[in-house]
């Protein structure tokens, strides 16, 4: 029987929600791994709405659960309904929605707060010793909730201009966590905490390399499940 995995979204669209390519890559690799997936998102208002064509704020309000339903093809549940006891693992794709809607990292950095349902979900899986997969910016959720854990967001220096957000690694270290430098096609496994991370779009890389890196994360999550 395939592993039961919960996928948590933060909206729809890189600048104000979940990164669509990352979410899709995770779903493809989970499907290939024979996993049974259910999708969740918090039923909250987005911090902001971005016109992705213009790259500028839009004067409107949107709901994270409603927007995430676009990616889930309508088959989605309120994150408040997620029970860790019903799943073997949980995965969080990245995107600015993670840093805006699931927590306030986009505004407050390492001093951010984490959404109550997101925090309780992470704590429930961690307490049950079930694996947690995170990619792109979402490893900061683990860094905030689990001091001392090990994660990667890629490199801690902007190597060849490929890691423009390398300072995120320093902020993770300031939170008391260990940042492990990895390439885009790799993931890191914190065996003690069963946390698996990969940098995805934190690196400027061809899409297939990002897709492959997410694949290594999913594979490691399924191994630990």
TrEMBL record:
It comes from the Eukaryota. Signal peptide: none annotated. InterPro entries: Class_I_gatase-like. SUPFAM superfamilies: Class I glutamine amidotransferase-like. PANTHER family: ES1 PROTEIN HOMOLOG, MITOCHONDRIAL, GLUTAMINE AMIDOTRANSFERASE LIKE CLASS 1 DOMAIN CONTAINING 3A-LIKE1-RELATED. NCBIfam families: PRK11780.1. This is GAL3A protein. It comes from Tichodroma muraria.
